[in-house]
Amino acid sequence: MMWIMKRKAYPSDLTDEQWARLAPHLPKAQPRGAPRRVNLREILNALLYLSRSGCQWRMLPHDLPPWETVYAYFSHWRGDGTWERLNRELRIEVRLSEGREAEPSAAVIDSQSVKGTESSDEAGYDAGKKVKGIKRHVLVDTMGWILKVVVLTADIQDRDGARILLEQVKTSLPRLHKIWADGGYAGSLIEWVLERCHWLLEIVKRSDHAQGFEVLPHRWIVERTFGWFNRSRRLSKNYERLTASSEAMVYLAMLPLMTRRLAKQATSFA
After folding, report:
1. For residues 109 and 149, is the Cβ–Cβ distance under 8 A?
2. What is the pLDDT of residues 139-179, one digit of tens each?
3. Where are the alpha helices (DSSP H) in 23-66?
4. CA–CA separation, 145 vs 152, rounded Å?
5. Does the domain spanning 82-205+217-269 belong to CATH 3.30.420.10?
6. Structural domain boundaries of the chain?
7. How far apart are CA 262 and CA 59, in angstroms?
8. Is 132 strand, coil or helix?
């Protein structure tokens, strides 16, 4: 049944096609207790509005669900792992729809330092980038979809952040055997990855003779993912008090990208 919009749509709203791809993955209502009274599509629309516009929770438009309700769903799904699960399930669906294996055999790792705000409880100083805030450590597949994001304070070195990230995924990526990275991950991390995770960490270096901008093999993939983050103003700085919320915001920002890809593919095959 077609869902009827009772308000004027925002550019960030999920289309009917996107909602059809996302809805089956959302948590089901509990069999016990009071029946669910909220419209989950409107909860997601409110969260995507906040993600794309970068507004404060209390400044969500009044024709969307109350901000307290929206935040309650965000925080509950942050705590029970729903945001990461949605990212994983949609990523697998996109990969399968394009004729790839569900899980990747190769990946790219990198980090992104992000300035913090006065609302952030956790922050550090990245002396290399001269940024005070947090650092997003990201592992992506060869399509640029996120396999894992770990947010730490900006003073954590890339190699140390990589160890924390890879420890969390070493048992969940059975086909993975190679990871590409830049020179910041060179050194003892290569041997650590091989011994601890049984993966090959390959450093992609910039040519000594290169001048100006140079597109580096494989590394451009994760740079494109960081470029996708720019579509979400909420990710332009770290507005979250908790690093767990910062991670959840990254997973949230990926949902419209993946559902749009799936909706487009469904239309082209129709």
Report:
1. no
2. 999 999 999 999 999 999 999 999 999 999 999 999 999 99
3. 40-53
4. 20
5. yes
6. 82-205+217-269
7. 31
8. strand
